[in-house]
């Protein structure tokens, strides 16, 4: 008896494509294809190094999956660094830039291929990324924000085709050094001194991960995870309450505007999250 049950698993999906690929092909087909092949080779090597696998490639796109969320983000950072280094030596007139999106989600498995919202969301996040950039979902951010030395910029909730609005984050890679090192080291030091700096800086970095966050940071992170209308309404409500407190509590008036703000925000959020009729999900 054949088992037709759909297999599913939780995985980290990385989607990448080339910004302006059609324009590059129109300008120089042969050169663009050679560059794409070279970058794909580097891409595959870094994915394997971080214990991932290439799921599919077509055109200029690449889909990969990882068992570890941390390894997926670290791999994406190193991919962008490697491509940037290759483009700058020697400098190219028409550099090829990849956009990368990463999502942690449930997927359907069919042989070696994967399908479902987990893949769709990663693809939509990739569309939000800048050329040479990486954008991650909130589920990825929750797992990696205190495990990597890269910074993260909250993009809020951006509209995405056939995907419910969600909070996303841009990976700020300006301070990230090449390779697997997750903290900056003075490259002018001799190898012995560099090793000592590695261990000392690494110890400080590990300790800093366990420092308690301030209440402002906690509130900021909490608001970032809420739908944008609700977060704005709560922020404005807080200011109204403070104004009422400091102008005298003998007359309480803040509850009326606060109630109106919260009702409007919740109503708007509910309407935005209603599914579109007869909409077809992309792969």
From TrEMBL:
GO molecular function (one): adenylate cyclase activity
Guanylate cyclase domain residues: 12-126
PROSITE patterns: GUANYLATE_CYCLASE_2
InterPro entries with a match to the protein in the record: A/G_cyclase (IPR001054), Adenylyl/Guanylyl_Cyclase_3/4 (IPR050697), Nucleotide_cyclase (IPR029787)
Keyword Ribonucleoprotein on entry: no
Pfam families found in the cross-reference section: Guanylate_cyc
Gene3D superfamilies noted in UniProt: Nucleotide cyclase
Keyword GTP-binding: no
Keywords: Membrane, Transmembrane, Transmembrane helix
Membrane-spanning parts: 230-247, 253-271
Biological process terms in GO annotation: cAMP biosynthetic process; intracellular signal transduction
The protein's name in its UniProt record: Guanylate cyclase
Provenance organism: Bradyrhizobium japonicum
Organism phylogeny: Bacteria, Pseudomonadati, Pseudomonadota, Alphaproteobacteria, Hyphomicrobiales
């Amino acid at each position: 008896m054949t088992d037709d049950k759909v297999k599913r698993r939780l995985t980290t999906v990385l989607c990448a494509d080339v910004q302006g690929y059609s324009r590059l092909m129109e300008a120089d087909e042969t050169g663009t294809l050679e560059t794409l092949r070279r970058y794909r080779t580097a891409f595959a090597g870094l994915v394997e190094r971080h214990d991932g696998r290439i799921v599919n490639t077509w055109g200029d796109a690449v889909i990969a999956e990882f068992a570890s969320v941390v390894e997926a983000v670290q791999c994406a950072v190193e991919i962008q660094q490697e491509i940037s280094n290759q483009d700058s030596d020697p400098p190219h007139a028409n550099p090829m830039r990849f956009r990368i999106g990463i999502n942690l989600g449930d997927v359907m498995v069919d042989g070696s291929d994967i399908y479902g919202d987990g893949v769709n969301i990663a693809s939509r996040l990739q569309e939000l990324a800048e050329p040479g950039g990486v954008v991650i979902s909130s589920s990825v951010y929750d797992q990696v924000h205190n495990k990597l030395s890269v910074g993260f910029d909250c993009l809020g909730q951006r509209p995405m085709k056939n995907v419910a609005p969600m909070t996303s984050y841009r990976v700020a890679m300006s301070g990230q050094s090449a390779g697997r090192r997750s903290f900056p080291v003075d490259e002018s030091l001799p190898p012995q001194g560099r090793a000592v700096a590695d261990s000392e800086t690494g110890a400080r970095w590990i300790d800093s991960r366990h420092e308690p966050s301030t209440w402002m940071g906690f509130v900021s992170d909490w608001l970032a995870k809420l739908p944008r209308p609700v977060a704005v309404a709560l922020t404005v409500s807080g200011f109204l309450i403070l104004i009422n407190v400091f102008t005298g509590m003998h007359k309480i008036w803040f509850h009326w505007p606060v109630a109106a703000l919260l009702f409007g925000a919740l109503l708007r959020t509910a309407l935005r999250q209603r599914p579109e009729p007869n909409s077809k999900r992309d792969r």
